Amino acid sequence: MSFLERARALYEEKGAALIHERLGGLDARIAVGLAGRGSQCYGYDDEISADHDYTLGFCLWISDEDDEKFGLELRRIYRELVPTGNIQRSAMGSSGMGVSTIGDFFLPYTGTRGAPTEVLQWLYLPSHALAEASNGQVWRDDMGEFSAIRKNILEGMPEDVRIKKLAAAVLIMAQAGQYNYSRCLKRGEEGAAMLAMTEFVKAASSSIFLLNRRHMPYYKWCFRAMTDLPGLGNLKDALEFLLTGENDQEGQKLKVQLVEDVCAAVVKELQSQHLTCGSWDYLEKHALDMHGHIQNGQLSSLHILEGW
Question: I need a surface site. Which of 51, 143, 161, 173 has the fewest CB within 10 A?
């Protein structure tokens, strides 16, 4: 069983009954699930994950008002289910399990006590933070407040922000992959060439998630999450090869061709979503075209790479 499955079983088999017994009908005011930092919140955990921040538990989210009324007692109940002495924590890996207010849960991820409300908030927030704020599962939310915020984070990014982020990612793909990788190789600068390829893969990955209207998770789970995407997820193997394939002359030639194949697939998807007006092979023109169609004046006035 995955951590998510075991955490849900702990709540449903023990936690739900204990909370109801001690709090009665107030349990209907508590949202329950698992979300936040850690591979277990994505369902990506394995035996290696268990070396830190892996004590079984779940999340209980309540309003500020309810925190004042019964938050202390709810924390006592949770400690009976998950004794604090058994919790392993690393310096940067606190999972956020246990009792928290709804606002306190979202604050570290969005900088507000809910979903972003301004276009610049959406632009500057890192994708992995938005992914962590909306990953995992919610098993109960009778009030609906927590789930409504999650839905807004998952689906509420303004289209002009998505286009701006895409324009930046596509421009980096062009500069790093289609232009600088080959030029660095011609100069014999293989280290610089690999840095350029790394930037290309990062930008291509970002483009793929944005084209799927999904938030890209923390880098080490990027390829794992890509396999679940309905569109362009099949590019994962090509992107992995660009990072891990042989760098002899034949391998470099193959990588140059793969870069063009990935770019062509991205262009095709941009066209299918009516995000570009052209059919150019070089992605820089598509990036400039997209940026020129941003309607929001605040965003269109910014440098094309602002927010990347």
Answer: 51
Closest to 184 (Cα-Cα) out of 255, 283, 288, 267: 255
Output the pLDDT for position 91. 46
Whole-structure pTM value = 0.93
Q: Which of 99, 123, 155 is the last residue of a domain?
A: 155
| Same domain, residue pair 23 and 147 | yes
Q: For residue 262, what are the contacts with CB-CB under 8 A and spacing of at least 6?
A: 173, 177, 204, 235, 238, 239
**Where would I find the beta strands (DSSP E) of the chain?**
31-34, 59-62, 98-101, 137-140
**Comparing C-alpha atoms, which of 43, 54, 1, 34 is closest to residue 140?**
34
Residue 88 pLDDT: 53
Clarify whether residues 22 and 138 are in a common domain.
yes
Q: Are residues 84 and 126 in the same domain?
A: yes
What is the count of structural domains for the chain?
2
pLDDT of residue 6: 95
Decide if 308 is inside a domain: no
Which residues does the chain have with pLDDT short of 50? 90-92
Task: Output the furthest CA–CA distance in the chain (Å, rounded).
Answer: 72
Give the domain extent around 13: 3-155
- Cα separation, 163 vs 165, whole angstroms: 5
